Structure formats: structure tokens, C-alpha cells
Amino acid sequence: MTLESATSTMTTKPCDRDVQLAWREAQRMIDLISTPEAEVSEQDRKWIAQTTYQNFANHINKGFLEYRKSVTETSDFSLTDWYGEGSIMRDVLGREFIDMLGGFGLYSHGIRHPKIVAAAKAQLDRSPQYSQEMLDPMRAHLAKVIANLTPGDIQYGFFANSGTEAVEGAMKLAKLYTGRKGFISTLSGFHGKTLGSLSLIGKSVYREPLLPLLEGVRQVPFGDADAVEMVLHAAKTVGDGIAGVVVEPIQGEAGAVVPPDDYWPRLRELCDKYDTLLIADEVQTGFGRTGKIFGVDHWDVTPDIMCFGKALGGGVVAMSGFFSTAKIWKCLEPNPFMHTTTTGGNPLACAAAMAGITVMLEEDLPRQAAEKGEYLIGRFIELKEKYPHILQDFRGKGLLLAMIFPTDEIGYKVAAGLFSRRVLTAGTLTNARSIRIEPALTVSYEILDEMLRRVDDTMANIVF
Fold first, then answer.
1. Overall number of domains in the chain
2. Closest to 123 (Cα-Cα) out of 283, 288, 345
3. Is residue 416 part of a domain?
4. Which stretches are transmembrane (predicted)?
5. What would the pLDDT profile of 161-196 be if each residue is shown by its tens digit?
6. Domain assignment of residue 179, yes or no
């Protein structure tokens, strides 16, 4: 189905609302997901695939359809999410894919890890949300668990639903504590797309259409501590205060960019010297992804504030948070309602998060990530030597890795070639020069080897 045909089938509402139609549409999908997988008919599966495409065109955003390989690289029915387990995903028509995207870091524990699903189901049978008045034990206990995981004297936390909310909260905390408005972030950095966190992003494509954003934000090259010091010194000289330096331990969306080994220790020294807060955006790097529990652990650095998200919810429930020290958190005590949320830190999410942390520790996911990452880097070095005109570089830590190509066009040919060979990766038509390899940390070596075989076959068949 083409975008034009989907648009042409757009239904026009006969009146302002159709309550009965809304009920029927909702009930049909509920009935389908409640039907045992083996009993869902082929007719129903095709209906889901067709209507999903139409609904994206008519009710979500037509632009998504132009950028999705699941649409542009399929000849009949678009790939439609339906079932996943571990590192394997199946679409509604039963087509099986190796997942090397991992939901951009959501699926660190694998898709639908049984222990995490069981914890969420157990809490669901007790209470999916909290009362808003009584003290909720799940949120309080999860905060204690994370306080024992984090480095240094980080002790207090606030839970939300998404990574960008965690960054927003960290920015508010830094401004409240310091009384300053300025921030330093990095070029090509990514921190979320709500207006505050968007102000930190180092890419014009997301920022420019929405200017002006927050005042006082300066971007410097990632990995360049001298540039950070230059801005801090200049700001102090003119009395323009910097509340915090916000940095990813390893840049994720930019393509698994690892900074020099002295970078994070120097950031810590500079923030201490200029009395500025160091904020680590661990939304993508946290909870084992890079081969350590947290990305900053590679350099034994303790930030003042840490932001979490993605894998925190175990790939089962949306979950995020930001944590800091008792000294900094004290500025929130006079009015604890300065930053609130209705659904953030709900019992369902907290149960999934606690189960996810137990899985991370019991299965030693950081070690698995480190060892499998080293294995992949070794294999990709061989592919680089074999296809130097295609694979320009390969970088990252743990299982936050990226293939680097000479151009977006070549990168997209690889991404599309992998898609046609049933391997899910990132990489769109306009942003494919670096393609992340970010699978579940539980992924088996057998699946990694099969993925590598398909990468080799893809590169061998690329025509310039």
C-alpha cells in the first residue's frame, strides 16, 4: 500500500463524533490481542497490517511512513509490530526479525523478560497506580535501590515517564539549587525533545524551527574539556552564571561516540573549580548498556545529578528518573510540589524497574555487554578490512556500538539491505552515516553470529 492510497482511503467523519464507531474499533483490537496467538486468523492479521498503515497516515503522521524501512522496503504489507521475545521480533504476518535496534536501548534485558513481566503483572493485580495521598511503598523502595547503585553520595530521586522528563527535572533542580539560568551541553548531543531538554540538543534540525528556546545554553564540541573550561571561565568573568554542564557519558544518537579517557575526570574537576553542577545524561547509557552499570563508571566519576530512562523500566513499562545528593535535593524540601507528576513512578513502573535491576545484577548484564561488545568490535574490524569502501569505522563501548559509513547513502543501503535480510537496525534515508548496533544485553552469540553473516552478505551485494 502506498502513502497515496492510504490517504485516499481516509474516512471523513459524518459528524463531530461517532461514539459507537469508536467503541467498535477499540473493542475489535482488544478482542484480537486477547485471542491466543495461534488462533488469530490470517484475515485478521492482514486487516491489522492494512489498517495500521492507514491509521498512521490518517491519525498519527504521514511523514513517519516516508522514513520507515518497514514501509519503504516492503512490497506488500508494511512490517507491523506484533510479538517479541528475547532478541527476536515477529510482525503481525509472522515475519521474523533479529532485533539489533533494541528499541534504542529499551530492551537491555531482552524483549519481554519473564521475570520483569511477572513483576509487572503481580503489581497490576494489586494496584496499577497510586492514590496520590497515601505513601507509596514501591516508589520509595525503588529510590532506595537506585541510591545503593549510584556512585558517591547520590541519594534522592524523582521518577517520571520518559528520558526527556528526567532531563527537564534535572535542569529545574540545577537552576533552583544554583540560582543560575545557564547550561553547557555538547554539539551532536541528544537529551530529549521537550522545550527545555531541546534547548540542550546540539543539532539544528530539531532546534531551529522552534527558536527561541531557553536562554543561556551554550554548546561545545563533545570530548573537548578545554572548550568547557573556556565557556565556564568567560561566563564567570562576565557574571553570567552556569547552573550545570549536561553531557552524555557516551553520545548515543550521534553514533556511539566515546570521549577521551581524561574527559569525564576533567569535567568533574572543572565543575568543582567553577562551582557548577555536573549532570550526566545516562538515559541511554545506564543500567549496563556500555559494559558498566553506568556510563560514568568507566572513568570513576560521580556527577552531581544523574538522569535515567529507557532500560530503567525493563522494556516493559515506561520509566525514567533523575537523582542527586542530599545537599542539592534540599532546595526542593521547602516546597516539594515545585516538581510533580501524576503518573511518574507509578507502582507498575516501579515493579518493572526493580525486577529489571535484579535481572541486571543476577545475570550480570554489564559484564555480558562488555564481553559481547568486544566480540563484535573484533568481528567488525574484520569486515572493515574486507569492505573498506563501505565500512569506514566501528566504535562504541559495550553494546552501544555504531557502524560508520562514508555517506548517508551508503549507510542507508546497508540498513535497507539488513532489513531485507530480516535484521532490524536504525538508519533513515536522511540519517544513516552512523547506524547503531544496540541489541539486548542478553543476546546470544548464535544470534550475533547470524547477524554478522547477514551484514557480510549485505555489504558483499551493495552496488554503487
1. 1
2. 345
3. no
4. none
5. 999 999 999 999 999 999 999 999 999 999 999 999
6. yes
